[in-house]
C-alpha cells in the first residue's frame, strides 16, 4: 500500500461538488492533488500536542456527565442515550467550539441534526449506495451523501462561531482554532485555498464520524465490564492508582492507563 500508494489515493465516492459540495470538499471526498494538498495541511492538526490542547474541553464535558449521572442515579436509564449525549457534548465542543447542553435538554439541536447528517431511512440508504457505487444515478438525480437540512444547520452554527472568533479574538484550542491557524498561515498563491466552506467541510465529517462510534464503543465496553467483574475490578484499580498520582486526568495520566487501552482495543476488535 505504501509502495503503490499512487494507485490508491481516491475513494469510491462520487466526485461532484455540485451534488454535495460539503462532503466533496472534505478530506474524505477530495481526490488526487487536491486530496494530497489538503491532507498535508491538515495532518499537523492531529498531532499529540494539538490533541493535548483539547483535553481540558473534554474534561469539562466529563464533569457535566458526572453531574448528570448523579442526578439520575436512582432512575432506570438507557446507557446508549446518555453516552450519545456525552459524545455530542465532546465533539460539538472540540469541533465547533460550542456548548450544546445535551444533558439539560430532552433533545438538543446538535444531537438532533448530528444523527440526521447521515440518513438512515430507506431513501437515504438508496442515495448513499448510489453515491458510492452507482455514480451515474447519483449524478442524474443530484443525490448528496449528507442530509442537507443537517448541513444547513451546521453551516449556520459554524459561521457564527467563525465570526465570533474573528471579531472577539477568543481562543479555545479546539478544531475551529486549529483550522483558523491554518487559514492564516496559507500563502496567497495556494491552489486549493482553505476558505470558510472548506473549513466547514472538515468540521462536519469530524463531528459525524465520531458521534455514533464513540457512544457505541463505550456502551459495549460498559456492557462487557458488567459481565466480567474481575476485569472491571482490575480496570478500576488501575484508574484509581493512576488518578491518585495526578491532580487532574491529564494526557500523561491516560498514557499510563495501559489496561484501559487494552480493554478499549479489545472492544473495538470485537465490534469491528
Automatic annotation (TrEMBL):
Keywords per UniProt: Endoplasmic reticulum, Heme, Iron, Membrane, Metal-binding, Microsome, Monooxygenase, Oxidoreductase
GO cellular-component term (any): endoplasmic reticulum membrane
Coiled coil: none
Molecular-function annotations in GO: heme binding; iron ion binding; monooxygenase activity; oxidoreductase activity, acting on paired donors, with incorporation or reduction of molecular oxygen
Protein's membrane topology: Peripheral membrane protein
Subcellular location, record wording: Endoplasmic reticulum membrane; Microsome membrane
Keyword Lipid biosynthesis listed: no
Transmembrane segments: none
UniProt cofactor(s): heme
Source domain of life: Eukaryota
Chief localisation class: endoplasmic reticulum
Gene3D superfamilies assigned: Cytochrome P450
Family: Belongs to the cytochrome P450 family.
Entry protein name: Cytochrome P450
Upper taxonomic lineage: Eukaryota, Metazoa, Ecdysozoa, Arthropoda, Hexapoda
Amino acid at each position: 500500500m505504501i509502495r503503490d500508494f499512487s494507485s490508491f489515493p481516491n475513494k469510491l465516492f462520487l466526485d461532484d461538488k455540485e451534488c454535495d459540495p460539503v462532503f466533496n470538499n472534505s478530506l474524505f471526498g477530495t481526490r488526487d492533488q487536491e486530496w494530497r494538498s489538503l491532507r498535508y495541511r491538515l495532518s499537523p492538526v492531529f498531532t499529540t500536542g494539538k490533541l493535548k490542547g483539547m483535553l481540558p474541553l473534554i474534561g469539562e464535558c466529563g464533569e457535566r456527565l458526572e453531574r448528570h449521572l448523579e442526578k439520575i442515579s436512582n432512575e432506570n436509564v438507557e446507557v446508549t442515550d446518555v453516552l450519545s449525549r456525552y459524545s455530542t457534548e465532546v465533539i460539538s465542543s472540540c469541533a465547533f467550539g460550542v456548548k450544546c447542553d445535551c444533558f439539560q435538554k430532552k433533545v438538543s439541536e446538535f444531537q438532533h441534526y448530528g444523527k440526521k447528517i447521515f440518513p438512515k431511512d430507506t431513501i437515504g440508504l438508496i442515495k448513499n449506495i448510489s453515491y458510492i457505487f452507482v455514480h451515474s444515478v447519483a449524478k442524474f438525480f443530484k443525490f448528496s451523501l449528507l442530509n442537507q437540512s443537517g448541513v444547513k444547520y451546521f453551516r449556520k452554527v459554524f459561521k457564527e462561531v467563525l465570526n465570533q472568533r474573528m471579531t472577539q479574538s477568543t481562543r479555545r484550542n479546539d478544531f475551529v482554532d486549529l483550522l483558523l491557524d491554518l487559514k492564516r498561515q496559507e500563502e496567497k498563491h495556494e491552489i486549493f485555498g482553505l476558505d470558510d466552506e472548506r473549513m466547514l467541510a472538515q468540521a462536519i465529517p469530524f463531528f459525524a464520524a465520531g458521534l455514533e462510534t464513540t457512544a457505541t464503543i463505550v456502551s459495549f465496553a460498559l456492557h462487557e465490564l458488567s459481565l466480567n467483574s474481575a476485569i472491571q475490578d482490575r480496570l478500576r484499580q488501575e484508574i484509581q492508582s493512576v488518578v491518585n498520582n495526578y491532580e487532574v486526568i491529564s494526557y500523561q495520566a491516560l498514557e499510563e492507563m495501559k489496561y484501559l487501552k487494552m480493554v478499549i482495543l479489545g472492544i473495538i476488535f470485537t465490534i469491528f
